[in-house]
Specification:
The chain is an all-beta fold. It has no helices and 28 strands. Strand 11 and strand 12 form a beta hairpin. Keywords: Repeat, WD repeat.
Length: 328
């Protein structure tokens, strides 16, 4: 590797279970926060100034929490558990009150995807009760928008990403399936736009940069598959990246589009330059599978952090700010 690997600047302990999902909220005048979802149904709200859990929400009857997010500009937390529910929580004024919940019917590990369509209104996409279906609803009304089911048998929905393109009509959705396929959906038209066989094994995770229209997907294999969308919304496969060891749990692109982080089954976090997927660093700290990675959304780039959550019940935080460095 081109640089010596750093050490974590600090770690967060006390979750008491594997850390399946992480989400930062570091903007505005409030203290910077990191939300984590655990394998025992707990959502921890970590204050990054004090490095302690400010609040713990027990929300899914002890079932694993697989995804957490916040509704921007509000004190609303949203969480998804393997109790087949998505829950919305009011965190204002020290509360942790359940506002509403959505029954998904899905027993899989596919994480929801959230898209703000206007102030106070969001689309929520999630795997449905039937093995291949994706349901999209509007929040907070819970109004059904559509159900997306592929024409061919592709197996279980594994991962999804909802976004609004800069040009053209309504939202698009990328989905990875059990047979290794990627599908691009037009949500407004309920139509498949393109399809590509990205991975030989089930697509365990994907990340997509809406600025460059490039994405990467990972599986139980030793390869990361790179792909892009052309001007006609066709999925085009690009070069793959070979990893040292097989298995990727999660992928995340930093907000400035310079770095990609992968959560490895080999207990390591790997950092790549996003432009050319060049390996930059291997972060070694955890003693079990790394299950989740997330970049912080600090407004000051020099404060930005990378968090990694592991099956070893710890969260490591890393400072890898390197603007101006060659991150290609």
């Amino acid at each position: 590797m081109s640089r010596p690997a750093p050490s974590p600047i600090y770690t967060l302990r006390g979750a008491g279970a594997p850390l399946n999902t992480l989400h930062f909220s570091c903007h505005g005048g409030d203290p910077p926060l990191l939300f984590s979802g655990s394998g025992k149904g707990a959502i921890h709200m970590w204050n990054l100034n004090t490095r302690r859990a400010e609040k713990v929400v027990e929300g899914h009857s002890g079932n694993s929490v697989v995804w957490v997010n916040t509704l921007r500009g509000t004190d609303t937390l949203i969480s998804q558990g393997r109790d087949m529910r998505v829950c919305l929580w009011d965190l204002s004024e020290g509360r942790s009150a359940l506002l509403d919940s959505v029954w998904t019917g899905s027993v899989g590990f596919c994480q929801c995807s959230l898209l703000e369509t206007s102030t106070g209104t969001h689309l929520l996409a999630f795997a449905g009760q039937e093995i291949e279906e994706i349901k999209i609803i509007e929040l907070p009304s819970k109004t059904p928008v559509c159900i997306l089911v592929p024409d061919a048998k592709l197996g279980m929905v594994m991962c999804i990403k909802l976004w609004q393109p800069d040009s053209g009509p309504g939202p698009l959705l990328l989905a990875g399936y059990e047979d290794g396929s990627l599908l691009l959906w037009d949500v407004t038209q309920r139509a498949q736009l393109s399809q590509a066989k990205a991975n030989p094994e089930p697509v365990m995770c994907l990340t997509f940069d809406t600025e460059s229209l490039r994405g990467v997907s990972g599986s139980s294999e030793k390869n990361l598959s790179s792909w892009r969308l052309d001007g006609q919304n066709n999925l085009q496969l690009q070069d793959s990246v070979t990893l040292v060891n097989p298995g990727v749990s999660q992928l995340s692109v930093r907000g400035d589009g310079k770095l990609l982080a992968s959560a490895g089954w080999d207990h390591r976090v790997r950092i790549f330059g996003w432009k050319k997927l060049r390996p930059l660093a291997v972060l070694q700290y955890h003693t079990d599978l790394v299950l989740s990675v997330a970049f912080s959304d600090h407004q000051d780039p020099q404060q930005r952090l990378l968090a990694a959550g592991s099956k070893d019940q710890r969260i490591s935080l890393w400072s890898i700010y390197n603007e101006g460095a060659d991150t290609g």
